[in-house]
Design a protein that fits this description.
alpha+beta; two-stranded antiparallel ribbon; extended
Length: 65
């Protein structure tokens, strides 16, 4: 039996004079969602501390375009 797929997607659209956010979750508890946000925050702060310009790293899953 395969483990259930968990999805946590956060989108932030930065527009002139407006910021819009949307979030999609599947099989994620509120506590897990908060933990993921904390992990992202920690990664950003760590990258800034090390002087990296690319604060996010993106990876493409096999089969995605």
């Amino acid at each position: 039996m395969e483990p259930e797929q968990k999805i946590f997607l956060l989108r932030v659209d930065v527009l002139p004079n407006n910021i819009q956010t949307s979030m999609k979750t599947q099989n994620i508890t509120p506590q897990e969602a908060i933990g993921f946000l904390e992990m992202a925050k920690d990664q950003i702060l760590d990258n800034l501390k090390h002087g990296r310009k690319d604060i996010f790293q993106a990876f493409k899953k096999e089969g995605e375009q």
